[in-house]
Amino acid sequence: MQNRFGRQRWILGVFLLLLVPFTTLAAEHVVIQYDNIPHYANWGKVTQKYFDRYGVRVPPDPKGSSASMAALEAEKAHPQADVVYYSGAIGYQAAQKGLHQPYKPQGWEMIPDDLKDPEGLWWTIHTATIGLIINTEALGATPLPRSWADLLKPEYRGKIAYDDPTWGGTAFTFVWGINQLLGGTSENFQPGLTYLKKLDRNIITYPRESIYNDVLRGEIPIWINADGNGLTMKWVDRGPVEVVIPAEGGITMPLVMAMVKGAPHEKAARRYLDWLLSIEAQVEFARAFFRPINPAAFLPELQAKFPPVEQYRNAVNPSLPDMAEHADQLKRAWLKTIRRRR
Do 125 and 298 meet the contact criterion of CB atoms below 8 Å apart? Predict the structure, then answer.
């Protein structure tokens, strides 16, 4: 009897030993990325291509930049994510909070110094400009707005949306940038908040999830968001969509990646982050009209589909350190001045 139980324990032990490498292998076949919204910057196709080529799954994740940073803070003792995608300022802020570990992926040298952390705590993979995404069918006979000032006109009442800036980094960049465009500073948010308070009369919603499909279907006529999302609707989805960079200027925005401190699938995460700077991945971002950090991936036929270069000349380029330092203060001011009114 003892021999039989002994043999059973021995067989079970061998089975468990054999199981270890398979468990490890399975773990290495997934990378968890926070802020992985399929329609944003072509992430759905990018991650599908990575799976097709390497068999590693990167599941979609609906969190925006600020929500991702909040999740990393909550999970700091037991990290769940491996990598994270942000708007530049939120990525900079998250690095300051100690939420990232340093890594310099392959292709590091092609990233301009002002678009990466010198220690490898974050780096830019592509950039965008915030402007107006307009579903022309939904707008009907109302003329296309051509400026930020136009959006305050009564004919646009109930026709505009921008994301909650306490959730998404694109919206936070807009709220910061409109203040800068109107003469505000990191010490004075009043010009921007005054404008946004007036704009609130024309706002349908401040969503805390992607409304890409809502805009494409015409349920929301005007979305203040990254130009690349609107250009994808126009040229890829063939929707009745125009992208306008307002006359006062657009707002430039770097989009960045980082490796999470204590990433549970670190080796797989490193390989994935390396691949995101490859020409193969960078072309996929470019096909969604987000300007790739690798200039070789910005194909001429894609460049030709952007709005005229003249529309981009007045764009402001906000300081990431300033934005990160005052991010919480501006979000609180927006909640108090704008969101509280609803």
Answer: no
> Which letter does DSSP use for residue 250 in this model?
-
**pTM to 2 decimals?**
0.88
Q: Write the single-letter amino acid at 315.
A: A
Helix, strand, coil abundance in the chain, percent, nearest 5: 50, 15, 35
pLDDT in tens, 161-181: 999 999 999 999 999 999 999
CB-CB contact of 99 with 69 (8 Å): yes
pLDDT of residue 95: 98
* DSSP letters spanning 288-314: TT-EESSGGGS-HHHHTTSPPGGGGTT
Quick check: 92 and 320 in contact, CB under 8 A?
yes
Contact 107, 280 (CB under 8 A): no
Q: Any idea which residue has 């995101």 for tokens?
A: 276
* 57: DSSP letter: B
Residue 83's SS3 state is strand
- State the Cα–Cα distance between residues 91 and 309, nearest whole angstrom: 28
Domains of the chain with CATH codes: 33-127+254-309 (3.40.190.10), 129-252+315-338 (3.40.190.10)
The torsion defined by the Cα of 259, 265, 270 and 274, in degrees rounded to 10, comes to -100
Output the CA angle 155-159-164, nearest 5 degrees. 135
| CA 303 and chain centroid, separation | 21
Q: How sure is the predictor about 195, in pLDDT bands with cuts at 50, 70 and 90?
A: very high
What confidence tens digit (pLDDT) does each residue in 25-72 have? Answer: 345 699 999 999 999 999 999 999 999 999 999 999 999 999 999 999
d(CA 303, CA 64) in angstroms, rounded, equals 27
Maximal C-alpha separation, the chain: 88
Closest CA to 181 of 168, 192, 197: 192
Residue 131 DSSP class: E
